[in-house]
Amino acid sequence: MTEREKTHTFVVYVENKPGVLNRIASLFRRRGYNIESLTVGHTERPNISRMTIVSSIGEGAAHRVEANIYKLVNVLSVEDVTHATTISRSLALIKVVASEESRHRLMEIVRVFRARVVDLAPRSLIIEITGAEDKIHALVDVLRPFGILEMVRTGQVVMRRGVQERVETSSPKAAEDDTRRSKQKTGSGPSGANALVEAEHPGSV
Amino acid sequence: MNERSSDSATPRKLSGAEIIWECLERLGVEHVFGYPGGAILPTYDALTKSRVHHVLVRHEQGATHMADGYARASGRVGVALATSGPGATNMVTGIATAMMDSSPIVCITGQVGSAVLGSDAFQETDITGITIPITKHNYLVTRADEIAVSLREAFHIAASDRPGPVLVDITKDAQLGSCEFDWELAAPRVHRQVPDFFPDPAQLNQAAALINESQRPVILAGHGIILSGAGEEVRRLAETADIPVALTLLGLGAFPASHSLNLGMMGMHGEAWVNQAIQESDLLIALGMRFDDRVTGKLNTYAQKAKKIHVEIDRAEINKNVHVDAPLIGDLRAILQRLLPLVKPNRHSEWWSQVHVSKQDSAVRDIQNLPDNGHLYAAHVINDLWRETKGDAVIVTDVGQHQMWEAQYYHHEKPRSLITSGGLGTMGFSLPAAIGAKFARPDAEVWVVAGDGGFQMTMAELATIVQEKLNVKIAIINNGYLGMVRQWQEFFYEGRYAGTPLLSPDYVKLAEAYGIPGLMVSERSQVVPALHTSRFHAGAALIDFRVEQEDSVYPMVPAGADLHAMIRRPTPLVERPTDD
After folding, report:
1. Which of B306, B295, B296, B297 is nearest to B248 (CA)?
2. For residues B398 and B406, what is the distance between their CA atoms, to the nearest angstrom?
């Protein structure tokens, strides 16, 4: 692949069943793509989980992965939100060396970054920060000279701004009705089933 | 779908094993290809009460190829059955074969008890984990009450959308357990049924405009035409707009070989004029094909002057290898039915005369025109087989040179008359797949065309043929080499034949050991009489054709080369015109 790589973010709705994560991860693995971060959790709907997958891959690769994720039986929808207007958050816990002398300077940094100190020990403290990736990066850079003892980060979670239509077929009967149309990337038309998957990305609302 | 209408009898208490057979019967299954073992024994025990016919195979790979051959010959779902561990892993090649060629099969495997899953119990293997990348979907079933819904979903998934293999792994305790059986409650609960994409009128108009404006169009006809049952629509499209039709290997039969608009096979061993036409075309209309590397050659130089319309059910195939100007996603037949009214009648006489010029240039190198010097060429055998069977047989090939000669010299008029492993190129496919095909179409004349290499991989299934009293004819194209690999060694490795010279048993004696009459043929004049004798023998028969050892398949586009850069048969062999 000579494609220029770029960080792509996929939002995937899946049935909450054993093995689904394996099936999705396998689509990246077999193509030699690395997953930078991956989060899975419950959603507003029962038995449906939402994954946010971040991977540094080319545009064509992203298209192929998205199309192949969509083919998995346990997947309800998949969207590459890389070019959409989104809110992105992750959380980090950072344990930093903190002597009596440096503690105040650290507190100051924490305040500026709107982070929180969640543990204070005689020679260290733990800082919790929530935010976009670049904000966490920035804090980590500032803390590094103090001595980072340990760090743990959740993967990114991403949500699009505004309201998108999302209709998924839930019964085979409804799906058998071949008069339904769905919107495709390459064309216009009334949106219908899986509009989330194929919806063109409107600007921020 | 081949589901029978279900009777809404009151729920009965059945064992998991009984539910398996009950479901298979209700799903219309008549034959199951399988091999018993410990973890599937409860299911075999319940077989004694079932109407389903069980075919005992000699290796589980054979069971999957039989299910595959059955599916390809009939369009119905083929079923293979095996035990856990080695039984399941032996199925892997067959499952991957079915996956690559979009063949609907359901593989049912026994699994160790759910209590010991993951404990490295005897004959335990993580077959669902192993087959994730080579199945459309798979199930690990640990309870009797999950069996019916899993099987119904498996059949639905295997046959719908782009077909493919589905594996259902059922633990021994699930087979032994019992529950109320309710067919209605076990309706498939697949969240999403595809195809759920349909082109809108704007896209159809765009595609129609491209067709109506094109001066040098070519239809690329693929396997999807057969899967979708769109042969008639493709013929109407080609005839309406006077478009030459090039076929992929798996597309052979989708468009009649004798039709005046048929160009022939494209790709690595396609006819030179077909590839030439594709390269000079201004519009490729790709129907149910996936621009495999074996048909495109070097992508950068592939049909550069052509716009591309791609009609395809699998969204993931769009823009995968070749950039497409007008993708139409959905069922091919449904799309063509909507597209046809928009296509204007047209004539492309200039384009056709251009195609005919390159066709004549190529014909002089055709092996059919070889003077009879007594040598037996594989092409003679295939050509004579075609004439003798009047193109009416179901030919099941293996993989290699003979497969390409078959594609070149057996002219397929009807869909599902060629069964061959295209995508995976699985040697050993032909004999078991032919067994499956014969069960699917007992009235058809079924021929195995295999090389001496591939045949030896699965020849143990000869016993299955005899045990099932099947009338399957076998032609071994025996050249004493792994011929296609030898050809590559000749062309690209300076003739160093490492690992390709191949010893065979005496196939006539081998056949006789199984009770199958065998013949050996080494001269061209003996071909027709041998075919005649075998065809009119009431049961299975085998012919060992000792063909020219170091013959090659021409023309050939070297892997990764420009499609128009073909290696031609070195010297024009023609001294006289073909005697057709």
Report:
1. B295
2. 10
Catalytic residue annotation of B: 60, 122-123, 172, 484
CATH code, B247 = 3.40.50.1220
Contact A97/A149 with Cβ under 8 angstroms?
yes
| Structural domain of A101 | 87-153
**Is the same domain home to A17 and A65?**
yes
Measured between CB atoms, which of B191, B195, B200 is closest to A15?
B191
Residue A30: CATH number of its domain: 3.30.70.260
First to last CA, chain B: 43
Same domain for A53 and A4, yes or no, is yes
The amino acid occupying position B527 is V
* In contact, A9 and A88? CB cutoff 8 Å: yes
Question: Cα A196 from chain centroid?
Answer: 16
| Tokens, residue A92 | 């980090």
Residue A160 in any domain: the answer is no
Q: What is the CATH number of the domain that holds A91?
A: 3.30.70.1150
DSSP characters over B357-417: HHHHHHHTT-GGG----SPPPHHHHHHHHHHHHTT-SEEEE-SSHHHHHHHHHS---STTS
Residues of chain B with pLDDT under 50: 1-6, 572-580
- Provide the edge-to-edge strand list for the sheet that holds B78-82: B53-56, B31-34, B78-82, B105-111, B166-171, B137-141
What part of B 142-161 touches A (C-beta under 8 Å)?
156-157
> Do A55 and A129 share a domain, yes or no?
no
> Is A194 near chain B, with CB under 8 Å?
yes
Q: Which amino acid, B447? A: W
ipTM for the whole complex: 0.87
Asked if the structure places residue A161 within a domain, the reply is no
For residue A162, being part of any structural domain is answered with no
- Please tell me whether residues B74 and B153 are part of one structural domain: yes
pLDDT tens readout for residues A80-99: 999 999 999 999 999 999 99
Q: Under an 8 A CB cutoff, do B200 and A181 touch?
A: yes
Q: Is A64 on the interface with B (CB under 8 A)?
A: yes
This prediction has a pTM of 0.91
CA atoms of B435 and B80, how far apart (whole Å): 13
Do A78 and A41 share a domain, yes or no? yes
Check residue B269 and give left, alpha or beta (phi > 0: left; psi -120 to 50: alpha). alpha
Summarised one tens digit per residue, pLDDT across range A34-47 is: 999 999 999 999 99
Q: Are B61 and B67 in contact (CB under 8 A)?
A: no
| Chain A residue numbers touching B189 (CB-CB < 8 A) | 172
Instruction: Looking at the structure, tell me whether residues B261 and B352 fall in a common domain.
Output: yes
Residues B442-497 have pLDDT tens digits of: 999 999 999 999 999 999 999 999 999 999 999 999 999 999 999 999 999 999 99
Orientation angle between helical segments B378-389 and B524-535, nearest 10 degrees: 40
Domain shared by A29 and A62, yes or no: yes
* Domain closes at, from A84, A102, A118: A84
Domain count, chain B: 3
Distance CA B482, CA B502 (A): 7
**Domain CATH code at residue B542:** 3.40.50.970
Contact B198 A182 (CB under 8 A): yes
Whether the CB-CB separation of B168 and B138 falls below 8 Å is answered with yes
* Contact criterion met (CB below 8 Å) for B226 and B254: yes
What is the domain range of residue B440?
A: 366-546
For residues A76 and A92, membership in a common domain is answered with: no
**SS3 state at A15:** strand
Dihedral, CA of residue B229, residue B234, residue B239 and residue B243, to nearest 10: -150
- Asked if A166 is an interface residue toward chain B (Cβ–Cβ < 8 A), one would say no
* Nearest to B78, CA basis, from B91, B140, A91: B91
